Amino acid sequence: MKFTYRELEVIPSGASSKRKVIFRPIIPIFLISSQKMVGYEALIDSGADHNVFDAGIADILGIRLKAGSKKQITGLAGQNVKGYEHSLGLKIGSYLYKTKIIFSSEIVSNSFGVLGNIGFFDHFSVLLNYKRKVIEIKYVRSD
Hints:
The chain is mainly beta.
């Protein structure tokens, strides 16, 4: 599967109000519960241990957040974030598989979901070509 990097316009922090364009490896995905399917966008993040999404997505999917296994994850700046792990379907392109997703109400509600090592990279070979702005994902058969 091939995707292109997502172009985002951001306002740098500080005194400058000049907008800047950045590119990130963001791909469309579907999260599937026993009740609903939701399309969403997710950032491919090799530094993330887990797949993490905003708790509002769990609500949309009909998932009771606190019915999942309680998990604590640590963010980039070392802050601890509480979340709840659930098992559900994840569809990327034509590939659908069951995996674990951590939902948290302690992350920004309008942020992208994160695809991490456990639940994404352990299923796919991923080539990120920033220069060409291309993402190539191939299913890796686990024997």
